[in-house]
Amino acid sequence: MDMDLITNILFAAVRTGTPLLLVAIGELICERAGVLNLGQEGMMLMGAVLGFIAALTTGSIVTGFVVAALAGVLMSLLFGFLALTLSTNQYATGLALAIFGGGLSAFIGQPFVGKPVDGLHAIVIPYLSDIPLIGKALFAQDGMVYLSFILVPALAWMLKNSRPGLIIRAAGESPDSLHALGHRVMMVRYLAVMFGGAMAGLAGGYLSLAYTPMWNEGMTAGRGWIALALVVFAGWQLGRLMLGAYLFGLASILHLVFQGLGFDISPSLLAMMPYVATILVLVVLSRSRDNPALQAPAAIGKPWRPVH
Amino acid sequence: MLRLERQPQDSRLMAWCSPLLAIALTLAAGALLFAVLGHKPLESLYEFFLGGVKDIYSVGELGVKVTPILLCAVGLVLCYRANVWNIGAEGQFIAGALCAGMAALAGLDIDTPWYAVVIMLAGMLGGMIWAGIAAWLKTHFACNEILTTIMLNYVAYNLLQYGVHGPLKDPQGFNFPESAMFNDNHLLPVILEGTRLHGGILIAAVAVIAVVLLLRYTHLGFKITVLGRDASAATFAGFGSKQLTWIVLLACGGLAGLAGAGEVDGPIGQLTPYISSGYGYAAIIVVFLGRQQPVGAVLASILLGLTYLGGETSQIKLGLPVSLTELFQGMLLFFLLACDLFIGYRLRWIPRVHPA
């Protein structure tokens, strides 16, 4: 394998992993606050379609991303109202969100299928991008990739060292204690859910505005579900989440690798790889469940209501 | 102010009224949607839900839609009762269809209609294998079944694509990604003259009765319900939760596999890239709507079947996208979950007390 091929594979792995990383960041924060939102796929699709329409009609990619994030937030509020205010079953509500978002996005987006939009351009950083092997992967990407580079360490620091981070973790570990201390658990969880929605919307927008700049029904192809597995894989830690997202990115572009090596394998079989990899990861993880630093938040998925 | 209060006991009345209320709210939201889109709300609603059912042929079409949904839903009733969150009926359906298709293609020249039995059994086996993977992952590696079954759905879908684009493609098919047509003799017989309604609906009916009997009269059914209601009580009573997980998943996989087999060995008659219209996902809604009861699932399957017919009808008559089907299904589940709140809670008006 020559250097150019490896450089390009690393570049593509980061690029392909980015939508996964964006949506998984949101879900990780949401789960750390104790809320399990299975509806990532629905929020991503709504972000993808509305962001695309906004960019197409206004001609501005930035507007497209803002609208994508807002679409995700609106969808997450729907989830929040049911799962938080009305304490419905979080599994079922997330599932409903995924189905509803799939239907609504296909419905809204039908007239826009196949229309082209000028996608997000890469910002090539001079000199740094010339570093062999990793330069292109790290310094010749678009703005959303750089945003994720900033968000991961910033949020990791916030969760670990700051007061808001402590409050978020408390909402996920022991909402009763947080309530007893006079904090508003509902408010914290709502904000976390909305952040998750915004990130899912951005991830969807990344797909329809940057990764493959066009809209297609169901174009997220299960990435919202893979993101849920990624959060488990990461043991609810942001650093590991980033690594996981790029590994999955790599699994999704295996066809490039195989083509480069001169193998001829059916694209359908290779398209299976990310899903098979997810299952394998879950199996491997079950062997390392004893690490106390990588456990699920104690109150995850449990509805919480204030007692008076 | 209005406040939600826990009721001392769950309301049984509300448990059965909630689906009706949810349907009413879905209709209202649908009417609103049609109005926003500039269609006459009531006429469009009527067209969506009942416009497709006007003669014996279209009743048959409804039955064709209800059959796979109901088969998947009856299996899911068992899983959800046992608190096993199988989202994989879709993948088990596809795996069943794929195995049934391979059996059908392998025996194209066999000259007896009874070969249909072999095809259906192959489909059942395919679904059971697919569900068995999830059961093995859950019982051996404690993998969350929600994630594994969803991933397996995508794997099954891609396997089907591989099959129809590759080894199962019809050599005389002008390179279309489809298998050869199955032997006409091997297809499930049509049971209502002048329609496409096939024997699969009888299999579904048998499945419903079997699950009703299982849940009502057998110890196994009792164990499944106890496991779902209180896992620690089930363990305490010595009901092997791993064994029960295997049983409910295999049963569901078998039924979903039969559903898939019935589709390809019935109305479709060959393997194509698109054999399911999301029936496995619709079945999840059916289980919630049908109160985890097999008989409730029958009624709910008919409603969901209507949403599929409605999507097709409104595409033809109103020029609206087929995705209207999923939209209605999603709204239905949302409203249902919200209404179900009032099974355990009630709203009370509490006047604000102003301190003197």
Automatic annotation (TrEMBL), chain A:
Q: Which residues cross the membrane?
A: 6-30, 42-59, 65-84, 91-113, 133-159, 190-212, 218-236, 243-262, 268-285
InterPro entries, per database record: ABC_transp_permease
Q: Which Pfam families match?
A: BPD_transp_2 (PF02653)
Where does it live in the cell? Answer: Cell membrane
Q: Which GO terms describe its cellular component?
A: plasma membrane
PANTHER family in UniProt: ABC TRANSPORTER PERMEASE PROTEIN, SUGAR ABC TRANSPORTER INTEGRAL MEMBRANE PROTEIN-RELATED
Q: What's the name of the protein? A: ABC transporter permease
Which organism is this protein's natural source? Proteobacteria bacterium 228
TrEMBL record, chain B:
Q: Which UniProt keywords apply?
A: Cell membrane, Membrane, Transmembrane, Transmembrane helix
- Cell compartments where the protein resides: Cell inner membrane
In the bilayer, the protein is annotated as: Multi-pass membrane protein
Organism encoding this protein: Pokkaliibacter plantistimulans
Cross-referenced Pfam families, in alphabetical order? BPD_transp_2
Spans through the membrane: 12-36, 56-79, 91-108, 114-137, 146-164, 197-215, 244-262, 268-288, 295-311, 327-345
Record-given protein name: Sugar ABC transporter permease
Biological classification of the source:
Bacteria, Pseudomonadati, Pseudomonadota, Gammaproteobacteria, Oceanospirillales
Keyword Nucleotide-binding in the entry? The reply is: no
User: Cell membrane: present as a keyword of the record?
Assistant: yes
Q: Which residues form a coiled coil?
A: none
